[in-house]
TrEMBL record:
This is diaminopimelate epimerase. Pathway: Amino-acid biosynthesis; L-lysine biosynthesis via DAP pathway; DL-2,6-diaminopimelate from LL-2,6-diaminopimelate: step 1/1. GO terms for molecular function: diaminopimelate epimerase activity. Its EC number is 5.1.1.7. It comes from Urochloa decumbens.
């Protein structure tokens, strides 16, 4: 992130409430550190031909602020990006699933893989996290999202240094911890391996788990291992000599997502084993398509690799957006994920 971006991100809580728009687009999205001197000046010059500049700017601002303005901060974790909404004053999300889908559109909206709401805690947790995918569906959990959530909380509450929070989600309680280097480590809990609980209709092959089960997709037999990290994942190490870069993800991904064996649809990870502690994956996400990273997916991949006997319990998982450190501990059966999360820009949108 550039110094200007860092400054903007660091002070976003105050600035989001007071900043004047500089580059109105659909819904008045403000990009405080991208507005170079060129573009705004040209826009002002053409407006001045028919309207006094200050009057036009003021009425535009007043109109925007008097309508339902939604303030947001855009975050990303390894390129898996989210519109974060401070929803601490209400247990109802400030946008509907349909509005979320529009906001996530990369051409007609802000652009994101999902919208995440920071809500008051329930069941004794510090906070509640809800998320809508970019298609408006609501998943139970999001690994990269929970890291972004932790960093957003630290900014909202003006916390410095190391901190941990309890976060209630549709998949239960999660505990992210902001570390001294800014990375976020999350206790992702125990993986769920029983087929009906994932859910998948594929039958158990090893104890009660679905490991290297055969799945017919597009006339090919794939070997898949199914894992829930609160949300469903189908992991395949594909054929021998599989190069994940060669996959036509947008063609094959939807066939897995909507396969009749997955009654709640599924996220799918295509994995290449680089070594017993280094894996490489691409993901097709349920409700979001191809994304640059998936935290729950990387956790599911390590669990699947261990179950298949192909990897150690502690691995680096390379995703298109960068690496995550994942450990499936033997002593408590919990999966731990460590990776980055950062603010990209803030803005407001009339919805
Ligand atoms: N990218 C996320 C997962 C988001 C939810 C997923 N699309 C689903 O529907 O389950 C992650 O980092 O875990």
């Amino acid at each position: 992130m550039s110094p200007a971006a860092t400054a903007a991100a660091t002070s976003f809580a105050a600035a989001a409430a007071t900043a004047a728009p500089t580059a109105p687009s659909r819904g008045c999205v403000r990009l405080p550190f991208r507005g170079g001197p060129g573009a705004p000046r040209r826009a002002v010059a053409s407006m001045a031909v028919s309207t006094p500049r200050s009057a036009a700017a003021a009425s535009f601002l007043e109109r925007r602020e008097s309508e339902r303005a939604l303030h947001f901060v855009k975050y990303q974790g390894l390129g898996n990006d989210f519109i974060m909404v401070d929803n601490r004053d209400s247990s109802e999300p400030k946008v509907t699933p349909e509005e979320a889908a529009k906001l996530c559109d990369r051409n007609f909206g802000i652009g994101a893989d999902g919208v995440i709401f920071v809500m008051p805690g329930t069941n004794g947790a510090d906070y509640t996290m809800r998320i809508f995918n970019s298609d408006g569906s609501e998943p139970e959990m999001c690994g990269n999202g929970v890291r972004c959530f932790a960093r957003f909380i630290a900014e909202l509450e003006n916390l410095q240094g190391t901190h941990s929070f309890t976060i209630h989600t549709g998949a239960g309680l999660f505990i992210p911890e902001i570390q001294s280097d800014g990375q976020v480590k999350v206790d992702m809990g125990e993986p769920i391996l029983s087929g009906p609980d994932i859910p998948t209709k594929l039958l158990a092959t090893k104890n009660k788990a679905v490991v290297q089960a055969e799945l017919e997709v597009e006339g090919l037999t794939w070997h898949v291992t199914c894992v829930s990290m609160g949300n469903p994942h189908c992991v395949t190490f594909g054929a021998k000599d599989l190069k994940v870069d060669d996959l036509k993800l947008s063609e094959i991904g939807p066939k897995f997502e909507h396969h009749q064996m997955f009654p709640a649809r599924t996220n799918t990870e295509f994995v290449q084993v680089l070594s017993r502690s280094h894996l490489k994956m691409r993901v097709w996400e349920r409700g979001a398509g191809a994304t640059l990273a998936c935290g729950t997916g990387a956790c599911a991949v390590v669990v699947a690799a261990v179950l298949e006997g192909g990897a150690e319990r502690k691995c680096v998982v390379d995703l298109p957006g960068g690496p995550l450190e994942i450990e499936w501990r033997e002593d408590d059966n919990h999966v731990y994920m460590t990776g980055p999360a950062e603010a990209v820009f803030y803005g407001s949108v009339v919805h």
